[in-house]
Design brief:
Layout lengths: L1 H22 L10 H11 L22 E8 L4 E9 L16 E8 L4 E7 L12 E6 L5 E7 L7 E4 L2 H9 L3 E8 L3 E8 L8
Antiparallel strand pairs: 1-2, 2-3, 3-4, 4-7, 5-6, 5-8, 6-7, 8-9
Length: about 200
């Protein structure tokens, strides 16, 4: 009789444990962490298609101008003198005391609304007109060689020579890219100098 009672009690105990286990769903379910599910979610999202960038070519930078510009204000007279200067591409070698290479510069000068001037200044050496008369020879681009009437400086400077018809000379400069000029040099004869005269900006 005692053996039957023990068996009944044991069976009842086991039945109760099984019911408790079935009634708690959390006891048999393991929660999934967010970290574990993130890769799967990321993998399921398609990346947007990459669109090709438009091919935009940057505009080439212009070559630096061979001209330099400056202004000189006269406050007393209320005028402004404008200058444009260009240095020759080549230099010549003169005898002592001017050895070491001499280049020449073109100067354009305009004082207010008045007179226009164009002249050449030699870095080292002396410009002279000689017995043939005062002139220089010029060639613009592939044009013909032309004689231009010129004058020595009236200020006593022997390194400068002035073009008589400065306005006409400036107009030709505005439409040219290259210039070769032949100038008389003291004890060196007529010497040639080359210029890049493109990109000139000068009032007409």
């Amino acid at each position: 009789m005692k053996t039957v009672s023990v068996a009944i009690l044991t069976a009842a105990f086991l039945l109760g444990c099984q019911q408790n286990s079935n009634s708690d769903p959390s006891a048999s379910v393991t929660p999934k962490s967010n970290a574990a599910s993130a890769p799967a979610v990321a993998a399921s999202i398609a990346a947007p298609e990459a669109k090709p960038e438009p091919l935009v070519k940057a505009a080439p930078e212009p070559d630096p101008s061979p001209w330099t510009y400056s202004e000189d204000d006269d406050e007393m007279r209320g005028t402004t003198t404008r200058f444009a200067v260009n240095t020759s591409l080549n230099a010549i070698n003169l005898e002592f005391p001017y050895q070491g290479g001499s280049s020449i510069r073109i100067y354009l000068r305009k004082k207010g609304k008045g007179r226009q001037e164009a002249f050449f200044v030699l870095d080292k050496g002396q410009v002279t007109c000689g017995f043939e008369g005062c002139y220089i020879a010029v060639k613009f681009d592939n044009g013909p060689v032309t004689r231009i009437s010129a004058s020595e400086s009236t200020g006593g400077k022997n390194d400068a020579i002035f073009i008589d018809n400065a306005v006409q000379f400036q107009q030709k400069l505005l439409h040219a890219s290259k210039l070769i000029v032949e100038i008389p040099i003291y004890e060196a004869g007529r010497q040639q100098f080359k210029f890049d005269v493109s990109q000139l900006k000068w009032p007409k």
